[in-house]
Design brief:
The structure holds two protein chains of two kinds.
Chain A: H1 2-9, H2 11-27, H3 45-51, H4 58-66, H5 70-74, E1 78-84, H6 86-96, H7 106-116, E2 117-120, E3 136-137, E4 149-155, E5 158-163, E6 167-176, E7 179-184, H8 195-200, H9 204-216, H10 219-222, E8 232-237, H11 239-244, H12 250-260, H13 267-277, E9 279-281, H14 286-290, E10 294-296, E11 303-309, E12 312-315, E13 318-319, E14 324-325, E15 328-329, E16 339-341, E17 344-349, E18 363-366, H15 371-375, E19 397-401, E20 411-415, E21 429-433, E22 438-444, E23 451-460, E24 468-474, E25 481-487, H16 498-503, E26 506-507, E27 518-528, E28 535-542, E29 549-558, E30 567-568, E31 574-575
Parallel strand pairs in A: 1-7, 8-17
Antiparallel strand pairs in A: 1-2, 3-4, 4-5, 5-6, 6-7, 8-9, 10-11, 11-12, 12-15, 13-14, 16-17, 18-29, 19-22, 20-21, 21-29, 22-28, 23-27, 23-29, 24-25, 24-28, 26-27, 30-31
Helix pairs in contact in A: 4-7, 9-13, 12-13
Chain B: H1 2-17, H2 33-36, H3 40-53, H4 57-69, E1 74-76, H5 82-88, H6 102-124, H7 130-155, H8 179-193, H9 204-209, H10 213-226, H11 230-242, E2 257-260, E3 266-270, H12 275-288, E4 294-298, H13 310-315, E5 322-324, H14 326-333, H15 359-362, E6 380-384, H16 385-401, H17 408-424, H18 441-455, H19 462-475, H20 481-490, H21 493-502, H22 515-520
Antiparallel strand pairs in B: 1-5, 2-3, 4-6
Helix pairs in contact in B: 3-6, 3-7, 6-7, 7-8, 7-10, 8-10, 10-11, 10-16, 11-16, 16-17, 16-18, 17-18, 19-20, 20-21
Classes of the chains: A alpha+beta, B mainly alpha.
Chain lengths: 598, 533
């Protein structure tokens, strides 16, 4: 004890002993045991590049610094960054004859950074991981307003993802707090050549006929104008494709076209039509065309149609009661397919594609095919729905809220993964609409060719007593055409004969089973004055109570065509009259007949 | 002196207040090893434990996901979750939870323990006779081999652990062993223990639910087939077939029906299979279980209050995680008879699948619409007789083609076996199944793969089948086309092109090792294709 007292008399020693005691007592408390603790060590994109041990991407940061983009890479936000390695930057500098990054013009630095970064605008978006890449363009443009393309290729035995066919990704999916970094082995340079220049440079041996037509019609010049800010997509066609139809030169093509386009006179006009028909305004890679059904070409009133079949994408397959025209596949392996240009993209078709005059053609429009929904990689992949609480905006649907309503969930997208007879919807999907919140909705319609059509609206009814909506067709430079009023709470009449119902403007549109909930109503008759995409305005006349209505399809059927057939199955197949029930999905389910059929 | 005392205080305090359990090494959550392994009953309990470990929900999920997710017969749904969705889109990354192998190594460790400890117990328990001892070791060896066979087919090269992990002094950081070497060792081990396995156990249930001589042989046949050792595969299958222990449940096809064209001339003959017999077959195989066709199946309890139900979770009809790919099944896998649509293959719609549901696990009868409720488990069939018949056909088919011989006797025999399966199921005859007077080996090869898809639909075999056909002769002789076709059948359009390119890499045909596993085991390297992630 004597020693102890002595020790504790020394203040320093006492302090030490107390500290030891405190430490020991605290040593083995299992405070962390059995609990989950999360700390964020996530770093921003620029921080990752700085902290990386090998410093393999630091040159890109120097470029960003020079262009004053460092703050952006450091800021919260969502970015997909393709970062070239230091070797890639050195190679770039060497090619440009510039000794160091410090001597690159600031403007060029800004261009480089902008071309390598995709900025995601909305908070609910996520940056693109390599799993989101397809063989085609990224869904969003870079900050330079140009699109990057990705493609999976086998590079001497190793599978790599190429970006813009220039660089390959050497390290993918590096996650930073504000996005993904994909390290690439080459600085990306926007394609310098325009579509026109590219076409002019096609090898003569294989493409002389197409080049000649594009040249004499002036299209090569039009497509070479860098001042024009529009995007173009051009379908390239080889000599072999012309020869297949017995067309060895431009003159023969003009002769060939006289039959297809009787209303166009003069050989040079015919050739111009042909050339214009091969051009689309807008940027369409194979993946984009796979999700398009019809697009307006630059030839007046002439559309191109697209359809996916097996592993091919067919252009202008035409099936009608009497005519079957085989579709022309887009040649996916051609080096001229998905070829990015300064102002667009080239694609090669593996056969003859040309304009043709046709009368009005029925359009069975699945309203769920909205660009924003189509763009989602999960679209119709049995795993997708846009719930109510997402304030999704649609570029082709304009909504006006009813007075007193604040914007919250007017539209949803739903997917029905399995068969259910009172949820038989075409392509298994639908738009859910809450009409009671709305005063007006304007739909941009799919492409309609000139002619007179009956308009049928196909829906699953809203469970209220009344919900009435009037439609109006609006065409640029034309008078508005009012249609009738449809009550979306109405049941399909399962008692009356189909022919009688048609007279009353009601029909059944699903082929498998007849259900009261699924109804199609004639909205009215319209005259499409010019081929194109017009607007259908829907004004809510009677709001009803707060219940959902499920809009499946709007059909435009030429007045002289059969209005009752085809019907549809849930997989989106058109079912023609007389099709045996076993061929209608789901094949083992019995069908309901119509009242006049038995 | 003062200083010395200070040290003593510090040391004493530190010792006294440190963790209380510091010196007691006995685990607080289990039985101490040495207290356990005393009697043959302990060993028996552990052997049964090895079987029970296969009933783990994650284990069954792996059997299903690994065997079907990359193939074409299933489709993802809104309830699938990202992991499965990505795989069905051909986007496979090392952070995908589906590629975790933890359950397999847990079972392997259990088997290793049985093999190691039963030798110790044999010294302690005098009533533990040789026959029983060898049988337990053989059962554990077979289960372990099955686990490794799954791993090798899925990852190619994996750590080969044949010792139980008992204490911390062992090195757990096993590096990879080559897949071929593992298969060689599995085959050798199985061949060695084959004689120790009983032909049957005391009850039918046990004979179907535990490893018998025949079950081990079926596994061996499967391994030999993967090794492209067709002689031995054929021999194993021949013995199983010759044993007379198993048979196909017959289905009455009724009378032959003539199909006539417009002029009245007979153009085809068809059969309408008996619906009652098809119902019975469905019931025996997938509802009642343990039938005469079964060789080895995982026996879940018929009903259970708390055990997790992997089947309900994946295949229920309210929010199924896995749907059947009906478009493909209806049009490609089960083509219609071109003359008479009523003459149907009994294994197709409303047998294997119905309205987008995987009916083998969702329904309780073929023709009814009653659904399985949660925790009324079906069995999981690992091997059944039809599988063995088709394995033999495959082996004979390959033997016949060796050296471009196209040996018609062997091909005829192989075709006979396939026909046995086809006739029982009333399979639809078409140009793919008609072999003509001179059989083309390659055409028969494709028929065998198609027939396996029909017969063993959703039984966790499809991906391994396609891969086995594709990798044959080192992906030679246009065999990779099988994978290219699979991509067309399964990939969404925007992913098809990239998936087909990926399939040109042999390493893409295997899973990546999960990131978590790589982080823990410093001696593991990621599989080649996945290094860029």
């Amino acid at each position: 004890m004597k020693y102890a007292t002595k020790i504790f008399r020394s203040p320093a020693a006492a302090l030490l002993a107390a500290a030891v005691l405190a430490l020991c007592c605290a040593s083995c408390r299992d405070d962390m045991y059995g609990k989950t603790f999360l700390t964020s060590d996530a770093v921003m994109i620029d921080e990752y590049i700085m902290q990386e041990e090998e410093q393999s991407m630091s040159a890109f940061l120097e470029i960003a610094d020079r262009a004053n983009f460092r703050d952006m890479l450091h800021a919260y936000g969502i970015y997909t960054c393709f970062v070239p390695s230091n070797e890639a930057v050195s190679a770039y500098l060497q090619a440009a004859g510039v000794p160091s990054v410090a001597e690159l013009p600031v403007e060029e630095c800004a261009q480089i950074v902008k071309y390598h970064v995709v900025r995601h605008e909305f908070e609910d978006q996520v940056a693109f991981a390599s799993t989101d890449f397809v063989n085609g363009r990224l869904p969003l443009a870079t900050m330079l307003a140009k699109y990057l393309t990705t493609r999976t290729v086998n590079d001497n035995g190793s599978i790599v993802i190429q970006v813009n066919r220039q660089a390959k990704i050497v390290q993918r999916d590096i996650q930073a707090a504000n996005g993904y970094i994909h390290k690439i082995d080459c600085v990306l340079i926007p394609p310098p050549e325009t579509c026109g220049e590219r076409i002019a440079g096609l090898p003569d041996g294989e493409y002389s006929i197409f080049k000649e037509i594009m040249r004499v019609t002036g299209w090569i010049d039009s497509l070479s104008n860098k001042a024009d800010s529009a995007w173009y997509s051009v379908l390239v066609q080889s000599n072999a494709a012309f020869l297949e139809r017995g067309i060895p030169d431009a003159d023969s093509l003009a002769r060939y076209l006289r039959k297809a386009l009787p209303s166009v006179t003069g050989d040079s006009e015919l050739l111009w039509y042909f050339a214009a028909y091969h051009c689309l305004r807008g940027l369409f890679y194979v993946v984009d065309l796979s999700n398009a059904s019809a697009l307006q070409s630059l030839a007046p009133n002439q559309a191109l149609t697209f359809k996916v079949k097996g592993d091919s994408l067919l252009v202008n397959e035409y099936i009608n009661k009497d005519i079957y025209e085989r579709g022309i596949p887009v040649s996916k392996n051609s080096e001229y397919t998905d070829l990015s240009c300064y102002n667009g993209v080239l694609l090669e078709v593996d056969g003859y594609v040309g304009p043709q005059t046709r009368g009005p053609q029925a359009v069975f429009w699945d309203v769920a095919e909205q660009p924003e929904i189509l763009k989602d990689s999960r679209f119709r992949k049995s795993g997708f729905g846009i719930p109510w609480d997402v304030a999704q905006t649609y570029s082709e649907i304009k909504m006006t809220l009813a007075s007193g309503m604040s914007s919250y969930g007017e539209f949803g997208y739903g997917f029905q993964s399995a068969y259910s007879n009172n949820w038989q919807v075409v392509n298994r999907d639908y738009l859910t609409i809450r009409w009671y919140r709305l005063a007006r909705v304007d739909f941009t319609l799919p492409l309609l060719t000139e002619g007179i059509y009956k308009v049928w609206v196909c829906f699953r009814r809203a469970d209220v007593t009344t919900c009435r909506v009037r439609a109006t067709l609006m065409q640029d430079g034309q008078d508005d055409q009012p249609l009738g009023v449809v009550n979306f709470s109405e049941y399909y009449d399962t008692e009356t004969a189909a022919a009688t119902l048609e007279g009353a403007g009601m029909k059944r549109y699903m082929a498998k089973e007849r259900r009261g909930e699924l109804n199609a109503r004639l909205w009215g008759v319209i005259e499409v004055k010019s081929t194109g995409r017009h607007t259908l305005r829907c004004d809510v006349i009677d709001r009803g109570r707060n219940t959902d209505m499920f809009l499946d399809m709007i059909q435009f059927i030429p007045v002289n065509d059969d209005q009752l057939w085809p019907r549809f199955d849930m997989m989106g197949n058109a079912i023609y009259r007389g099709t045996p029930c076993e061929e209608i999905w789901p094949k083992d389910k019995a069908c309901s007949t119509d009242n006049d059929d038995h | 002196m003062k200083k010395k005392f200070l040290y003593i205080i510090v040391a004493a305090l530190a010792a006294a207040t440190a963790c209380s359990g510091w010196l007691d090494m006995r685990p607080y959550d289990g039985v101490v090893e040495d207290d356990y392994w005393k009697t043959k009953e302990d060993v028996h309990a552990m052997v049964i434990g090895c079987y029970s470990s296969l009933l783990n929900k994650n284990m069954v999920n792996n059997f299903i996901y690994w065997g079907e997710a990359r193939a074409d017969m299933i489709a993802a749904t809104s309830a699938s979750g990202a992991a499965l969705l990505y795989i069905t889109r051909g986007e496979i990354t090392p952070d995908n939870a589906i590629v975790k192998w933890d359950e397999f190594y847990a079972t392997i460790n259990q088997c290793n323990k049985v093999i190691e400890k039963s030798a110790v117990v044999k010294e302690l328990d005098l009533t533990f006779d040789d026959r029983l001892y060898l049988q337990y070791v053989a059962e554990a060896t077979a289960i372990r081999s099955l686990m490794y066979f799954y791993l090798v087919r899925s990852f190619k090269d994996v750590p080969l652990v044949l010792q139980a992990s008992n204490d911390d002094t062992q090195d757990y950081y096993y590096p990879k062993t080559g897949g071929e070497a593992i298969l060689d060792s599995l085959a050798a081990h199985l061949e060695a223990v084959l004689k120790d396995l009983p032909i049957a156990y005391d009850s039918n249930d046990q004979s179907k639910g535990r490893i018998t001589y025949w079950a081990a042989m079926a596994l061996l046949a499967d391994i030999y087939l993967w090794q492209e050792n067709y002689e031995k595969c054929n021999e194993m299958c021949r013995q199983i077939i010759a044993s007379g222990q198993f048979s196909l449940i017959p289905v009455n096809l009724g009378e032959e029906i003539l199909v006539r064209d417009n002029t009245g001339a007979a153009i085809d003959t068809v059969h309408y299979a008996s619906a009652a017999d098809a119902d019975y077959l469905f019931d025996q195989l997938y509802v009642t279980g343990n039938c005469v066709e079964s060789i080895f199946e995982l026996q879940f309890p018929k009903q259970h209050e708390s055990l997790s139900d992997p089947f309900y979770d994946l295949f229920n009809t309210t929010r199924p995680k896995i749907a059947s790919n009906d478009l493909l099944l209806d049009e490609v896998i089960f083509p219609e008879d071109e003359h008479d649509k009523e003459a149907k293959d009994i294994r197709g719609s409303s047998f294997a699948y119905k309205n987008g549901y995987v009916w083998k696990y969702a329904g309780t009868s073929r023709s009814g619409n009653t659904l399985r409720v949660e925790r009324t488990f079906p069995h999981w069939i690992v091997y059944r007789y039809a599988d063995v018949i088709l394995m033999r056909a495959e082996a004979l088919n390959q033997l016949a083609m060796q050296g471009n011989a196209n040996d018609q006797t062997l091909l005829r025999e192989a075709y006979g076996l396939v026909q046995q399966i086809r006739v029982r199921a009333n399979a639809v005859d078409n140009s793919d199944s008609d072999m003509g007077a001179i059989i083309n080996g390659k055409a028969l090869e494709k028929l065998i793969l198609d027939e396996r898809a029909r017969e063993l639909a959703f039984e966790g075999k499809r991906w391994y089948d396609v891969l086995r056909f594709a990798r044959r002769d080192n992906y030679g002789d246009a065999n990779r086309e099988y994978l290219m076709q699979l991509a067309i059948n399964s990939a969404p359009p925007e992913k098809l092109a990239s998936l087909q390119v990926k399939y040109t890499s042999n390493w893409f045909c295997y899973w990546p090792i999960h990131v978590g596993t790589i982080e823990i085991n410093r001696n593991l390297t990621q599989n080649e294709f996945y290094l860029q992630y």
